[in-house]
Fold this sequence. Notes:
This protein is mostly beta strands. It has helices at about 30-40, 75-80, 150-160, 160-165, 210-215; strands at about 1-5, 10-20, 20-25, 45-50, 55, 65-70, 90, 95-100, 105, 115, 120-125, 140-145, 150, 170-180, 185-190, 195-200, 225-230, 235-240, 245-250, 255-260. The protein folds into 2 domains: about 1-55, SH3 type barrels, CATH 2.30.30; about 65-260, Fumarylacetoacetate hydrolase, domain 2. Helices cover about 15% and strands about 40% of the residues. It is globular and about 50 Å long.
Amino acid sequence: MxxxxxxxxxxxxxxxxxxxxxxxxxxxxxxLRGRAALQDRSSLDGQEHRLEKVxxxxxxxxxxxxxxxxxxxxxxxxxxxxxxxxxxxFLKPSTAVIGPEEAIVLPRQERRRVDYEAELGVVIGxxxxxxxxxxxxxxxxxxxCFNDVSERYSQKSDGQWTRAKGHDTxxxxxxxxxxxVEPDDLAVESFLNGERRQSGRTGDLxxxxxxxxxxxxxxxxxxxxxVIATGTPSGIGKMRxxxxxxxxxxxxxxxxxxxxxxx
Length: 263
């Protein structure tokens, strides 16, 4: 099942993507009513929209995005960084989130290098606190594509990553939440202006989805709609104004954004 968040008219709605049609939902898939109703599709409100006639939005509105650094073995080799003994965490603010086809805005600063990072995003479906590893999947609504946009000069100079990773528009998510996929061995790719730049598999993760959910939820409560970005494979690179960056994940879909200069 592919869950979308979309706009048709003035207000955002949730829906289910069925081929080239979007079927609207009565309730949020993150609510108790919505989660229960999705099992038998009883939350569908009867309204259908052609996909080409609606605007897809970021498929959730996270209170926070929890990201992992250096979580692919290939990326550790690429950057010359050691394998971390525990998951290396940082946060992106909710204000960094954008959806498919929206613009990544380059920051206005004298020196900058803004990179793409293709990642599998884990969308939390219900409140999670101190989750045992063996129960981690019970708290997942589904999976999505994520681009961990990063500015390298401030990342290096600051020694911590909030400024480098937290600019507005630096957390593209989408195009939907896929609920019927296993995350353990999926192809993760990025394409810059149609040319493939990254190609990895989630089987190369140092810390698995289950490991990460258990680890993070022991530190902070994860709320419905929160996103965990699981790290990027090797092949990261620079984006420039006018570029189109596309994140593709096997069995999930493709997230496309364009890059613009700060107005």
